Amino acid sequence: xxxxxxxxxxxxxxxxxxxxxxxxxxxxxxxxxxxxxxxxxxxxxxxxxxxxxxxxxxxxxxxxxxxxxxxxxxxxxxxxxxxxxxxxxxxxxxxxxxxxxxxxxxxxxxxxxxxx
Amino acid sequence: xxxxxxxxxxxxxxxxxxxxxxxxxxxxxxxxxxxxxxxxxxxxxxxxxxxxxxxxxxxxxxxxxxxxxxxxxxxxxxxxxxxxxxxxxxxxxxxxxxxxxxxxxxxxxxxxxx
Lengths: 116, 114
Known about the structure:
Chain A is mostly beta strands. Chain A has no helices and eleven strands. Chain A has strands at residues 4-7, 10-13, 19-25, 31-38, 42-51, 54-57, 64-70, 73-78, 87-94, 105-107, 111-115. In chain A, the strands form two sheets. In chain A, strands 2, 4, 5, 6, 9, 10 and 11 form a seven-stranded mixed β-sheet that branches. Chain A has a four-stranded antiparallel β-sheet with strand order 1-3-8-7, with no helix packed on it. By secondary structure, chain B is mainly beta. In chain B, 0% of the residues lie in helices and 61% in strands. In chain B, strands 2, 4, 5, 9, 10 and 11 form a six-stranded mixed β-sheet that branches. A five-stranded antiparallel β-sheet of chain B has the order 1-3-8-7-6, with no helix packed on it. In chain B, a hairpin with a 5-residue loop joins strand 4 and strand 5. The N and C termini of chain B lie far apart (41 Å). Chains A and B meet through strand 5 and strand 10 of A and strand 4, strand 5, strand 9 and strand 10 of B.
């Protein structure tokens, strides 16, 4: 258990509304990630963070933004939700302060988002 | 672009059988490979991490091997049990920009029957 919580765990929203998902960690890890999981596509990286206020895009970042104002919180925002963003969203952290073969990622429980 | 493939997509075996799950990747410039387990409606649980310089890792009834040059990894499960039923995912780590990136396969869905 890497002390990762996600909120909300389930959310149903309507097309065009803004949505913010929260990832919270208790172990002061530097690296945090947001993934989405869809049938047939596996898990794909949306955005990641390598420190407070330091973020970068992943492979499916269009329509998403992130913010990290504190080490423990990483927020994912859908500015105007679309049906194609219906998915399960996972937050992850990686232990260690160095990019190396020792880095191992640990995942939160996920948020199931439905956009109608 | 790194691509990860897992074969088979689904597997059903009787309890007690030893089994092998396969993972292949297209770019051998990886830092490590992780095997995960995912139960329905749940998050991912890390099972084993193999660093790029290692050939295998063991944890209990699980043994994972890595052949980086050929782009292959296997997860061996000994004496399978119904509680092993889950989806197993492999993922390879590469480094991009300021962070690292895991590329996932789409998984093997395992069912162990009584």
